[in-house]
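Please check this one:

***
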Amino acid sequence: MLERIAGCSPAIAALKKELPGLAGGSFHLLIVGEKGTGKEFWARVVHECGPRRAGPFVKVRCRELYGEPPEKLEARLRGSRGGTVFLEEVGELPLPAQGRLARFLQEVPRKVRFVAASTADPEKMVGYGRLRRDVYGALAGRIIWLPPLRERKEDIPLLVEAFLQEFAAGKKPVAGVDPRVLALFARYPWPGNVRELRECVGAACLFAGSRGVIGLAHLPAYLLGWEGEPSFARELAQKVGEALKGRKALGEIMEEVERVLVARALAESGGNKARAAQLLGISRPGLYKKLMKYSLTFTG
């Protein structure tokens, strides 16, 4: 299982170093991270690298217990002794079921190891009343914080290689990946994190075929569509940054942003002022005033 951990970033390197202690302990774990960061993957790594590997790995989707009697949770936990119970999104476990869980944790200490996962900050969930304090305290023997992929982009080439090997199992692998694809991967913010990257690589493998090279044409359309947006986003960010550095007033900063937006709408409409006004949600006379204000013309 250790060989499946792809990454060289400081956060992943630290987790690898700490893994023997995490897997070998009997304390419960709480894994926190955005959707798609690999919470279940790490739960399985802990299970398979520890002394309970021969026991069952029981996955409980907490949201599926909404509207169910609390006894339903106990039914899910039957047969888990000697193994690991993975609680997916523990904050979504109904409060009555959390009460049963609290009692279960007291009655069978260390006979079952719980690894809970949460997308939300557990302390905030306790404050909002979504997670019982005693359940949080029992599960948080150790908290693992998983970073989003955008904060560990140095791991992307290794993750891509790992996914290529995974999808090539029993088949002829692709010949490689175009450097432009890896460059795009390094720029993209990956809101879906590692899961999104894996799905993207899997789809690209299908389109490239065996012995093919994954190129930009094999990527999902939304990725290629996104590629045209960074310049616009950077322009907005640059204008705001320059205005802030120049200690401009809020009104002046808003004018900088408005000028960029008006120019963008004019370009998008091919100089069609009626269409540009529609894109901006203003009247045509209002657009003319802004064009005059900012001395803008279409030269496309």
About this structure: Residues 277 and 284 are 5 Å apart (CA to CA).
